[in-house]
Amino acid sequence: MSGSNSSVPASSSVAAPRPDEDEPLGLTVHSLPVQPLDPDQRTRTGRLRMMLILLMCASPVIASYFTFYVIRPQSHTNYSTLIVPTRALPAPAQLSLQTLEGQPVDARALRGQWLLVAVSDGLCDATCEKLLYAQRQLREGLGRDRDRVDRVWLVTGTTPPREALMPAMANATVLRAIEGQLASWLAPDPGHRLGDHLYLVDPHGQWMMRVPAEFDPAKVRRDLDRLLRAAASWDRPGREAL
């Protein structure tokens, strides 16, 4: 045996990669030129966005009214008269309100709560007394929802309210109003006086329901319960007292 090493040593050289292998690809992105919007198109886009925002804000209200007016089972039809379309609270210039002390009140201050409204002169006849009593009982009968409803007595004429009535109205809003101005907002059933009914106004100032004259309190309370449940997703109590 010869002492020479006949094995072939491993080659220490490494083949150079081909130019088309193992090199990262470089990509260059060229942005397309952006065409500026013309003023009319910007205006249309802005209006569309504003309409979408308003629709999103109003959708809970629309849904609750749609549920109450349209998708209600026939076995649960309303007892009171629904006002369609609703009537908006008049602007302060069209509805002058005052406290009993003569201080002017902005009509918009009534917004924010459901209102159960009675109207009469200061003498308050037997029908008026009955309505004011029913107004209080209906609100108390709502249980925990009573804080979502305010009692309002709009006193027409120049005669001050009888002192005997004021203790019962201690937690109510009592304001002076001009009967002729109220006609643009509230209206009685044909053949009745404005003071023969209670009127329900929603937190946006929309008159939307009229309680019948000579009504059944249990049926009216059922109407109120259903309406407040339908509005529970968007309505919150808390209008500050005048």
What does this 3D model show about the protein?
The protein has four helices and eight strands, in the order αββββαββαββα. It has two domains: 38-71, no CATH class; 80-230, Glutaredoxin. It starts with 38 loop residues before the first helix and ends in a 12-residue tail after the last helix. It has 242 residues and is an alpha/beta fold. The strands form two sheets. A six-stranded mixed sheet has the order 1-8-7-4-5-6, with helices on one face. The longest helix is centred in the first third of the chain and has 31 residues, at 39-69.
Quick recap of the structure?
The protein has helices at 39-69, 126-140, 179-182, 217-230; strands spanning 81-88, 97-98, 104-105, 114-121, 149-156, 173-176, 199-201, 206-210. The protein is α/β, with parallel strands linked by helices and 242 residues long.
The CATH homologous superfamily name of the largest domain equals: Glutaredoxin
Please outline the major beta sheet.
Answer: 6 strands, mixed
Number of domains: 2
Low-confidence stretches: 1-14, 70-75
Please tell me the CATH architecture of the largest domain by its name: 3-Layer(aba) Sandwich
Q: Could you give the order of the helices and strands?
A: HEEEEHEEHEEH
How widely separated are the two ends?
121 Å
Any descriptors?
242 residues, alpha/beta, Glutaredoxin, 2 domains, 6-stranded mixed β-sheet, two-stranded antiparallel ribbon, 26% helix, 17% strand, globular, disordered N terminus, Transmembrane protein
Please outline the helices and strands.
Layout (H helix, E strand, L loop, with lengths): L38 H31 L11 E8 L8 E2 L5 E2 L8 E8 L4 H15 L8 E8 L16 E4 L2 H4 L16 E3 L4 E5 L6 H14 L12
Parallel strand pairs: 4-5, 5-6
Antiparallel strand pairs: 1-8, 2-3, 4-7, 7-8
InterPro entries: Thioredoxin-like_sf (IPR036249)
Keywords: Membrane, Transmembrane, Transmembrane helix
Protein name: Transmembrane protein
